[in-house]
Amino acid sequence: xxxxxxxxxxxxxxxxxxxxxxxxxxxxxxxxxxxxxxxxxxxxxxxxxxxxxxxxxxxxxxxxxxxxxxxxxxxxxxxxxxxxxxxxxxxxxxxxxxxxxxxxxxxxxxxxxxxxxxxxxxxxxxxxxxxxxxxxxxxxxxxxxxxxxxxxxxxxxxxxxxxxxxxxxxxxxxxxxxxxxxxxxxxxxxxxxxxxxxxxxxxxxxxxxxxxxxxxxxxxxxxxxx
Length: 226
What we know:
Helices cover 45% and strands 15% of the residues. It is built from ten helices and eight strands. The longest helix has 16 residues, at 106-121.
């Protein structure tokens, strides 16, 4: 039986829509602090401001990197990680280079992730690798998990929330069976109710990527595109 506090402590609450303003950041930061949400996940340009808004609370700052397609050049990704760390980030959610993965250029994918991991781990920052799993077959999900582990990442994560699909129990099952004993697992996209959140936790995930933390924790179903 999960309490509201239990679920909140597993949530990364996303504030990532392009039209979100500084006022939205402030409002969401207050909510995250009030509910004890694990982290607030923001765009790279908002890390510094969010760190200031969350100062003194137990809510951490996380951010996306090379979002939402993973298509930045590897040195750019490494620099983005360095900048986010300087601005006060606690965890980084990077997008795997989806096109290179689909091309079968697995060495590129590993080295791309590794470049970010090396910067982050020097500063004790965890790295989550977003696969955008809805583009992939279940066999490809497993392969992407293996590459993320080879590159030294800490988490595998399903979705940006801006792609063609969301997390599913089937995808999470593959992630857990492939790397669940070695890495942490984060479903994201499509988690819009208390029931869905708890079902994923019961399945064995370590974190939840959500876009409506308050509504979920208050027990409401959410009509949203994240």
